[in-house]
Amino acid sequence: MDLITMTHGAGGSLTDDLIKKYVLKYLGGSDVEVPLEALDDAAVIRDIVLKSDSHAVKPIFFPGGDIGRLAIAGTVNDIAVMGAEPKALATGFILEEGLEISDLERILQSMMLTCKEAEVSVITGDTKVVEKGALGGCVINTSGIGFRCSALERNLEVVREYRSFTKRWLLDSNLRPGDKILISGSIGEHGVAIMASRYGYDLGGKVESDVAPLNKMIKSLLEVGGIVSMKDLTRGGLANALNEWSEKSGVNILVHEEDIPIRKDVKAACEMLGIDPLQVGNEGKIIIGVVPEMADEVLRELRRHRKGRDAQVIGEVTGKGRMVILDTLVGGRRILSRPVGDPIPRIC
Amino acid sequence: MDLITMTHGAGGSLTDDLIKKYVLKYLGGSDVEVPLEALDDAAVIRDIVLKSDSHAVKPIFFPGGDIGRLAIAGTVNDIAVMGAEPKALATGFILEEGLEISDLERILQSMMLTCKEAEVSVITGDTKVVEKGALGGCVINTSGIGFRCSALERNLEVVREYRSFTKRWLLDSNLRPGDKILISGSIGEHGVAIMASRYGYDLGGKVESDVAPLNKMIKSLLEVGGIVSMKDLTRGGLANALNEWSEKSGVNILVHEEDIPIRKDVKAACEMLGIDPLQVGNEGKIIIGVVPEMADEVLRELRRHRKGRDAQVIGEVTGKGRMVILDTLVGGRRILSRPVGDPIPRIC
Predict the structure, then answer these.
(1) Could you tell me whether strands A227-232 and A312-320 are parallel, antiparallel, or unpaired per DSSP bridges?
(2) What CATH architecture does domain A151-335 belong to?
(3) Whole-model pTM?
(4) What is the CATH number of domain A6-148?
(5) What ipTM did this prediction achieve?
(6) Contact call for A143 and B43, based on CB within 8 A
(7) Which residues of chain B have a CB within 8 Å of the CB of A112?
């Protein structure tokens, strides 16, 4: 008798197996432009980008954010990285009996502020209550829709100046040999902040979650142009996201460890906890695949934004294949494989 | 210190208070066509109907259905009663550690079959896992989008033949004095089936849930025309739905108890359990407000469908006001007030 385990929800290869073996078997097969089986950040039907994300972070309040900010930013970012402009959200609250209404109010206020920051609106919702159990207060599902925007059209025009390109959205399968890989900032803050706060670790410093909506920064990158694919880093961190790209695009990716931005305190915390920062999730960082001719310009635009000021070019697509290779700090290269799951459960 | 209670999630006046006092305070204020503060079955932006519903039914398998069928039908029906054609869904699974994968597979299969019945597709989704607690296996959020359809246009044309009418969707606020109130079938089956199955009551017969997608039946009703408003009966049952109509349309509604279809076994079960069948939820029934000239034709069309064969005209809008009046079986009239919450928690 096979049972669901925490790792099935940790966003790595075990989650992927569960979805491919069971969910797609029954729910795949629609004829929309970007369907479920693309397993991309969101789906597309009639030029509308649709996304649903359930947020089960524990604890619900953590340094640098809370479940409310996460619930808005997570869905906004998934829509934005497709190249769309997120517009309207729907929220489904699962509240636990005994949750303090003042805590719910703090969460709602945080959602409101994050909506303002992202210029999106919650237009519908639903509230259910369940008996006190293991949720830790509440779970919030956020769905949302986004629309094609002129910035995406402009971006695709620039891509087509440099190579033949027929894709209409920034899909995981769009990378080609030669493309440069950029990251918008330092990795691992969100996961480490959750871990420290959940278990009360003293990490000798304050690591705050980077949770943030990135849609406005993304729009300005599209206006520069030349971007072929974008992904936000969540469960399983950079290692997971790069492997998804590699697998879906059928390419080998080389990344240089020395160029991957990581804060000293995050690095120290990961060493202390015995986890690999490359597998730890963020909630306010993206990786970007850019035609090589435009990489410097996109990087410059990224660094103009507060949320992208530590951006770096971290690697490139080296050829056809299915491997992610890490050029290590200590010297030598190794395969950067897809984690079975994020080492920290329930980070989002 | 105020705490969330089970009744806050039971869909009656306490849920309404929570949403008006807290959720709307922070998340209201968007400028879309049908916004959050309409508190209607779904929202509308740029002619797209958007809906999100979390399904926390307990137990996850019950006579006549399961959480998978409920999760598809619930969202499909909420979109359809606005007058739109549901097209694409997004599912967010919250799975409990220890859930048997074979049970997940049964649920997915049921979702697939219900999608086929409703002719909708799941196009994106998300899966999270939480520690074993009080969920009873899983919670499923289903969001979805629907589009304007020619049947809605045809329906509105017929309405305008009989009265001036500028609304573009079938809103809760559309009723006017003279409108007839129809119900598509008998009440209370879903709630009673859940109650019996949860507590192992022997109700001297087998009451099955009526959970079903109604969008195809609804489309054929729109083709007949003359419908001004529609609502599906869920938490809080007929009493809740009628009071929502009355409040939002600013009208008094009179319903005749003798015309409300109710199965003998459901009635007996409610008497045994000491609950009012008018407050017990369904998941496969709608109420329909129709211009009086078209009531008979809409009724005839309803009865042509298996899911509408027990349909009845149960009342009418009597004038401006905010009351629902029940013309009782025993004689005399009484106010049918809005329940504080559905007498059966976690029915959907």
Answers:
(1) unpaired
(2) Alpha-Beta Complex (3.90)
(3) 0.96
(4) 3.30.1330.10
(5) 0.96
(6) no
(7) 26-27
